[in-house]
Amino acid sequence: MNYVVVGNSTAAIGTVEGIRSADTKGKITLISDESYHTYSRPLISYYLSGTLPVTKMYYRPKDYYKRLDIIPRLGERVSSLRLEDKSVVLESGETIPYDRLMLATGGKPIVPEMSGCDLRGVHTFVKWDDILGLEKVLKPGKRVLVIGAGLTGLKAAEALIKCGVEVTVVELANQVLNSILDEPAAALVQKTLEDHGIKFYLQTRVKEILGRKGRVSGIAFQDGTTLKCEQVVLALGVNPNIDLVNDTQIQVNRGILVNEHMATSVMDVYAAGNVAEGYDTIYRQWRVFPLLANAYKQGFNAGLNMSGLVRSYSGSFAMNSIGFFDLPMITAGILKPEGEGFTELIDTTIPRDYRKLVLREGRIVGYIALNKVESAGTISALMEKEIDVREFQEQLLKEDFDPVNYLKQVKNKTKE
Length: 416
Known about the structure:
Layout (H helix, E strand, L loop, with lengths): L1 E5 L3 H13 L4 E6 L11 H6 L14 H4 L2 E5 L3 E5 L4 E4 L4 E3 L2 E4 L3 E3 L12 E3 L3 H8 L7 E5 L3 H12 L3 E5 L12 H13 L3 E3 L4 E7 L2 E7 L4 E3 L2 E4 L3 E3 L28 E3 L6 E3 L4 E3 L4 H15 L12 E6 L2 E7 L8 E6 L6 E7 L2 E8 L5 H9 L18 H13 L1
Parallel strand pairs: 1-2, 1-7, 2-3, 7-18, 9-16, 10-11, 10-16, 11-12
Antiparallel strand pairs: 4-5, 5-6, 8-17, 13-14, 14-15, 19-20, 21-22, 22-25, 23-24, 24-25
Helix pairs in contact: 1-7
GO molecular function: oxidoreductase activity
Protein name: NAD(P)H-nitrite reductase
Cofactor: FAD
């Protein structure tokens, strides 16, 4: 069997490991436009801040490709797909045939249609090369403006402030981390970042990036006011990188549409990770949610199916485990419920701690754990198993809540 994998991040690695768990002899060619050994993209902010050495960036050991008998084609870009004759075409013009193809092309940063985005000093914050570009121009005292207060923007801001530069974050929404926190939790995160010197402009729109002699000199807000800066980081999120499948028979919505086997609408072509739409068990629909663990699971499942085994992907739900300075947090699922049928349980008894559970039909469908995150694993397990917690829901946020004993009680009730 001749496998071709386009991509070299989490979903791609999951795919080759899924293949190799069932097929130790098939030929695997892995193609990536980045020249680096597979690395963990969420770690780039830690590398920039100097808290993580280069050696810790890699997602798998240095001998990984050799050990799994993979042919790496790093630093090479796939320019097009020839689905009719089952091959991919590189920018060099070389054609590589496949029996089974995986598209794990991930996401690409959103660049707004705004004047000044092509100036020197404008950066995105997705790949290692983005960080290397920033690293070269950062000097203590310089001013950097981050557009976007989502996870990427705030991790960028945290890393940048540790580099000794002045950091300002501009966000259109009325809170930071608008998609993964409610307002009270967001206020705590914002205060933590402000305490470390990061400035915020919320409910503010950037009209254009200003420049002088081809370089960034500042930004202009929609209301006409301006702010000086030497560097701008665009952190507005990512879109599925579906460029390769445009104008092909492969069906797309926001991302590439796949079935429960991670197969696309074209035979022998699969997709996984940020480029694909996975099944969200909480929202009960197929949608894009760019998460590391989910990308790996999708890739591994696809790899099994590509090798000839039949395995269904049962789906997952959005979960984020992250921290800013000394404030850890874990969030998952539905956090701002709309409509009827939801119950919210909130605990703010301890300053700087914030915990919230969202229930639907007696089952946990969302939670926020800020600062105190020890019980998050148990909550996630209850959420994943869709356990009815109504009988115990008032205990879930208590300090003396015993998750082990609780799960035993649930298990015993299930057996009865």
